[in-house]
Amino acid sequence: MNDYIAKAIALNGQIVIYAAVTKNTVEEARILHEMNPTPTVALGRVLTGAALMSQTLKAVNQTITIQIKGDGPIGGIIAVTDWKAGVRGYVHNPNFDVPLNDDGKFDIKKAVGAGYLNVIKDLGMKEPYIGYVDLVSGEIAEDLTYYYAFSEQTPTVMNLGVLIGAGGKVLTAGGFFIQLLPGASDEAIDIVEKGISDLKPVTTLLNEGKTPEDIIRLIFPEDQLEMFETCPVNYKCTCSRDRMKRNLISIGKKDLTEIAEDENGAELTCHFCNKKYHFNKTELQELIS
After folding, report:
1. Domain match, 153 and 251 both
2. What is the rounded distance in angstroms from the CA atom of residue 287 to the CA atom of residue 280?
3. What is the number of domains present in the chain?
4. Which residues of 71-80 are buried (b: 16+ CB within 10 A; e: fewer)?
5. 75-78 CB contacts, 8 Å cutoff, 24+ apart
6. Does one domain contain both 104 and 247?
7. Are residues 163 and 262 in the same domain?
8. Helix (H) or strand (E) holding 105
9. Domain that holds residue 102
10. Is 93 in the same domain as 230?
11. pLDDT tens for each residue of 112-159
């Protein structure tokens, strides 16, 4: 199954819901960053959350960045999405692992620790919108749900999951994102609560062969849904040699001159895809000029 997001409006426009499968995207991130299982699960959840949140964007030049910083061994997590769920991300420490928690699951809370979450929305305006909340659980989905409630005052349910198999390979990944639109009734809230109360974990559903559309229909009655065109999800890094040149120029002439003194030149590595860009001494001198 290719990665994609299914989209629907429920209860005559009172609720919007997105559901995604992101297995291939998370597995690509795992391979690119050579991550151990725990950081794979953590980054996978954030990438999936970012992909789902991308559906709230309206224009081609808009992006959302999720930054999580904690005092746990993962150090921090960054994920960025464009308006069409082209996502990229990384963790500060991809090579650690921690024991499973008391429920026998990956202990993302311990991996992340205490800290904060930032959501940066670049909507093409003069200044981006930046929302900040303290982490309430470190489990990612709960923290993003809290962000919407606290920072954007929007009742939201976020559910994210990554299932890891033998050798650390991603077996499946995905999630769903429900928001109550302005004017939603108490009855609509009750239907959401009832729909998700007995729902199996999203990774269990996906591993059983359920599609994102199936997950939406498990939460809401079929006759109260209006489905829309799906959106593909993919890992999309935007790095380039020109972008790396601009990064070098941005450090200033003095520091760049010091770097250019090295006969071996300079090598820059993209945080998001680990691609390396080498600049020889002549190229560095041209940048200085």
Report:
1. no
2. 11
3. 2
4. ebbbbebbbb
5. 77/42, 77/43, 77/46, 77/112, 78/271
6. no
7. no
8. none
9. 4-235
10. yes
11. 999 999 999 999 888 999 999 999 999 999 999 999 999 999 999 999
